[in-house]
Write a structure and sequence with these properties.
Layout: E1 3-7, H1 13-23, H2 32-41, E2 46-51, E3 55-65, E4 85-93, H3 102-117, E5 121-127, H4 131-136, E6 140-141, H5 147-153, E7 160-166
Parallel strand pairs: 4-5
Antiparallel strand pairs: 1-2, 2-3, 3-4, 5-7, 6-7
Protein name: GNAT family N-acetyltransferase
Keywords: Acyltransferase, Transferase
Organism: Undibacterium aquatile
Length: about 170
């Protein structure tokens, strides 16, 4: 497997959208147009994994954030000017690459970026029974949430868990 992790480009969005439709149930698929807006809002923290044979096979869209801020499903990114955390909004791996550690590599890449920026945490919403994956990456579920956080969490289909990793 010849895998490269690189910054996402506008021309990757169609492939990224295809990966999303493979990875998520239909209620969780976000509009392709929102990917363009998110990439424009946070171009330094959106990455793809590209395999020489498969092409773009996974992605991670994240943005500089404040600890404790949960993004609602379908919302635009609102990068924090005084960020202390990297919010991992969307990690998806295409079916052809499942079980090959691609998701882990993207998370490690994001963590290295967060550490180089001097941020103290990474946080996310775990959906579709992925909590065990995130726990293996060092994330811990936070259950004591404010009404605003609970409201944002409720926008996700099925069980959703807010998780944080101290860096």
């Amino acid at each position: 497997m010849s895998l490269q992790i690189r910054l996402m480009r506008e021309q990757d969005i169609a492939a990224v959208f295809g990966v999303q439709t493979q990875a998520y149930v239909s209620a969780m698929v976000e509009a392709e147009s929102i990917f363009h807006a998110r990439l424009r809002a946070a171009p330094a923290t959106c990455w793809v994994a590209e395999d020489a044979a498969v092409g773009v096979c996974a992605y991670l869209m994240a943005y500089p954030s404040s600890s404790g801020k949960i993004s609602s499903l379908g919302s635009d990114f609102d990068p924090a000017r005084d960020a202390d955390s990297l919010y991992l909004h969307d990690l998806a791996v295409g079916t052809a690459m499942h079980g090959r550690g691609v998701g882990v590599r993207l998370v490690e890449h994001a963590q290295a970026y967060a550490l180089s920026a001097g941020w103290t945490t990474m946080h996310l919403v775990s959906v579709q029974s992925t909590k065990a994956f995130w726990q293996k990456q060092g994330f811990v579920e936070v259950t004591a949430l404010s009404p605003e956080q609970t409201s944002a969490l409720m926008t996700y289909s099925g069980l959703a868990h807010y998780c944080v990793k101290q860096l």
